[in-house]
Amino acid sequence: WNRDNRFIGWTDTPLTGDGVLEARVAGQMLHKSGLLFDEAHTSLLRRSIRTTNLLLMEMGQEYIPVNKHWRLNERHYGDLVGKNKKEVVNQYGKEQVKKWRRSYRDPPPQMSDSHPYNP
Description:
By secondary structure, the chain is mostly helical. The model has no long low-confidence stretch (mean pLDDT about 95). The chain has helices spanning about 15-35, 45-60, 85-90, 95-100, and strands at about 40, 65-70.
């Protein structure tokens, strides 16, 4: 999805190979810093859970509690999920897409029940 420049949102895509490498390197950096966590928090998306697990593994802290909650999921992009970001900008304009991506007051178009990625 990232390589295709598509809106992901709550779609439960797996962590990519690049994501695995980035998580491991970040975990190694955190380990070298000497930082210790009491607990971790992540979303219910498997890519986020795997990132958390990889970080903790590299830090040698797999034993700490990991709290998962849907409220930590990424922004839900509604009807934009699965669509190419550049095509959406061409269709609706750069400013409108920026509002949908950054604003809490201006949500993206609602996802229909028949949308192929409706959770």
